[in-house]
Amino acid sequence: MTATVRFAPSPTGLLHVGNARTAIVNALFAKKHGGRFILRIDDTDAARSKKEYEDAIIRDLSWLDLAHDAIAHQSARIAEYQAAFEKLVASGHVYPAFETELELDRKRSLAAARHLPPVYDRASLDPATKARWEAEGRTPHWRFKLSRTKVSWTDLIRGPVEIDTATQSDPVLRRADGTFLYTFPSVVDDAEMAITHVIRGEDHVTNTAAQIEIFRALGATPPAFAHHPLLVGAGGEALSKRLGSLSLQSLREDGLEPLAIASYLAKIGTSDAVEPRPSLDDLAADFDFGKIGRAPAHFDSAELTALNARLLHHLPYDAVAARLSGMGVGPALWEAIHANLTTLADAKNLALLVTGPVTPLIEDAALAAAAARLLPPEPWDQDTWPTWTKAVSAETGARGRALYHPLRLALTGRGDGPELKKLLPLIGRARTLARLEGKPA
Question: Model pTM?
Fold first, then answer.
């Protein structure tokens, strides 16, 4: 199956985990089917759209390794929207409406008071009313005339969906100032860019019936639709108040790995295990709409951090060597410390356990003195630690925690950390002896 999908963010803010998840799902679907992934910048809102946010979106997608095959800007396609709009005018699918926003608000309030849905009453289609408003010199906005019938489609995630457009207001396609609202440019672009699958959040489900009717009015075949559940917090709370801290920029600054984020966002809310995957290709091979559940996906920052750690614990040195430059971490030290990392930045501090200076903590002076006397000559390897500690235990009688904990405090200045059998050969005999004697080294 050949597929063409699109991700259409508005450059009005930073990319956050919610819309990043939509981008990932689209990119993985396209990758699996050898299709195209189009980045479409929805920048028709000139007042709120910022070049800095567009640059940030492109940077964040690149950081996630979500390469787009083409990029389009809706602000550069106004002529195409106007041509499509004139086609709908000619076919009678749109009509001018003249109410002010205040008048529309009043109508909605009256409907609510009568316990009725706030559906536009099509007053502007009444010839006398229209003539009166035109005589007042009002400038109209333009609405698409819904069929007021049931529109159905088979959603690739939700299954059969049916929406009665009689329960919806005719959507405004063009404002009185001539600018177009999201619904219309999106349909025109999807039709002209031959988008085969629209994959987006379920908050767009109610838009879909109207958009299907607009596709058909333009003589275009609607694409397939897949609406995934939205993200919520770990306890089911809305994420809207936390979006600043959940931007891709913030997560990157926190030291999280892009592949950990992609693995997490691709797998939460699915029937697959949430675990780090070695590549986007591996994630794409796994992708299946049938695995995406209907319940909201719970985003847990602690779970993501733990997943990030698990990813680092399995990364070979070659995968991170360039990023470790300047930290003093070579292959042997990486092998010793990577199982203790939460973020890659932790490697710099753990490297100090070898290079020093470490201020030793002498918990058992007698034990430390015996350990210093029994230090074997170099060269050392990973067998040195068990051989040496066995000798120290035989002389002092210390075993278990009473043996190992004081030695760890003396050698590293901390009560936990990487395996000492791996660290000891890297620390070396001179530093080891100095630390056992209580000297910073």
Answer: 0.92
